Amino acid sequence: MHTKNIICFGFGQVAKNFIKKLNDQRTSFKLTTTSRDESKNKKFENINYESFQFTEEGFDKNFISRFEEADHILLSIAPINGTDIVIKNLKNYFKLSKFKWITYLSATSVYGNHSGEWVNEKSETKPTSINGIERLKVEKEWMQLASKFDLPFQIFRLSGIYSNQYNILKRLKSGEAKIVNKKNHFFSRIHVEDIANILFSSLNNFKKKEIYNISDNQPASAEEVAMYGVKLLGIDKPKTIEINEIESEMLKNFYKDSKKVDNRKMKEFFNHKLKHPTYVEGLRYIFNNTI
């Protein structure tokens, strides 16, 4: 069996769930990751791996030899002040590669506000938030690099991620959750396990320079999702606040955009059946297994 030589640029919840999926499927792989912290040997899910320091200021030069051995790359570092630090530090090294698979994790914030209408991969990208503007700029830079060196490259535009660790049920229980009074505000979400499953499917089902929306089947308002959580937990409805009472800049940006994300391309190309097809199944699973 060929051992996959994998580098995860950034090792957050999506990358960790992807590696866990590979491990569960008994895939043979060698793992290397990057971090802002000093280089060191680490362990995750009984997997020994090496993490190398990699920042906008520079990186551990010992990483280069590991990079030159890699054949699978997962890119999950968000832009830093509009710059993708992987491109900044390594763009000329990509021509030396023997890559089989490179995936960039972007976000559906690149679409901006579509007033509650459906968006697909061909829809106009008109981001309103700094995050969305930077993501779109970096997507284009990666596509240019992929064309220049003919890289096996794809983009996954992720909807709002929730997981067994990070979800509305936990926020409701802790009293952090608020209902924001905004009519006809739709957004889409995806359970992190489904992202990992689709990444895994794409290892053997790959088409160069494609973009996929990674989203569940049922866009809904934040209020609808929160009220389902309230029902599951059997608690009182949290406090309702107005838009102008929101303190978090990130949350303000979230409420600027309203759209329903179409996931048909993802489901058809990867022939994928979602484990958590809507927030109902996702939250019920979390409630039954982790709360």
User: CATH homologous superfamily name of the domain at 4-162 and 190-215 and 261-275?
Assistant: NAD(P)-binding Rossmann-like Domain
Span from first to last CA?
Answer: 39 Å
Question: How helix-rich are the residues, as a percent range?
Answer: 25-40%
Envelope shape: globular
Estimate the strand proportion. 15-25%
CATH architecture of the domain at 4-162 and 190-215 and 261-275: 3-Layer(aba) Sandwich
User: Mean of the pLDDT scores?
Assistant: 95
How would you describe what is shown here?
This protein has 291 residues and is of the alpha/beta class. It has a domain at 4-162 and 190-215 and 261-275: Rossmann fold. It is 34% helix and 22% strand. It has helices at residues 13-24, 63-69, 85-90, 130-149, 168-174, 192-202, 222-233, 249-256, 264-269, 279-289; strands spanning 4-9, 29-35, 40-44, 47-55, 58-59, 72-75, 101-107, 118-119, 153-158, 160-162, 179-180, 189-191, 210-214, 240-241, 260-261. A hairpin with a 2-residue loop joins strand 3 (40-44) and strand 4. It starts with a strand and ends with a helix.
Please sum up the structure shown.
This protein is α/β, with parallel strands linked by helices.
Task: Kindly list the characteristics that best describe this protein.
15 strands, 291 residues, Rossmann fold, alpha/beta, globular
